[in-house]
Amino acid sequence: MRAATLxxxxxxxxxxxxxxxxANDYGxxxxxxxxxxxxxxxxxxxxSGARVGRAVVTQGATGLLIRIxxxxxxxxxxxxxxxxVGQCAAPFTSAGAHVNHxxxxxxxxLLNADGPDDGDLPNIFAAADxxxxxxxxxxxxxxADEGPGEWLWDADGSAIVIHANIDDHTSQPIGGAGDRxxxxxxxxx
Length: 189
Known about the structure:
Blueprint: E1 4-8, E2 19-23, E3 29-31, E4 39-46, E5 51-59, E6 64-70, E7 76-78, E8 80-83, E9 124-126, E10 132-138, E11 158-163, E12 180-186
Antiparallel strand pairs: 1-2, 2-3, 4-5, 4-12, 5-6, 6-10, 7-9, 8-11, 11-12
Family: Belongs to the Cu-Zn superoxide dismutase family.
Pfam families: Sod_Cu
Organism: Brevundimonas subvibrioides (strain ATCC 15264 / DSM 4735 / LMG 14903 / NBRC 16000 / CB 81) (Caulobacter subvibrioides)
């Protein structure tokens, strides 16, 4: 098997650490494990293509810390997920399904007895003016890892997606969270 080496660089500054990734002929990835403090920033865009905020993702010892600052949401609760493809062409379906490392893949929902999938995150709350400032943590995803798998900064990247409605954390496939209204790309270069 021939392996091609890819440099895992964030497309959007500021850059944290550079993580080296290798893809084999089957698309599996191996490479350096992300270390605590590795980070990157994704610009959040709405469906009209306007910049509405940012998400900063930082690797911790046991998972990821995700800080989200955004505007332009309807007031109230919104589902937010990590999607498996680093593309944000409106209506953001190009971001694919949730990151899901399990074999077989786990169903959606933080409250699902058979879940959650690796892209599931807690809901965020938008204030009366449509702004949100949130800090989320997940132990089910990494920036990069040594073994084969789907990481945030693998060859096809990933995306942070905010939905129009609250996620009930049980319904399939996305907890009733509705349309994808904000998206931010994190991808390998």
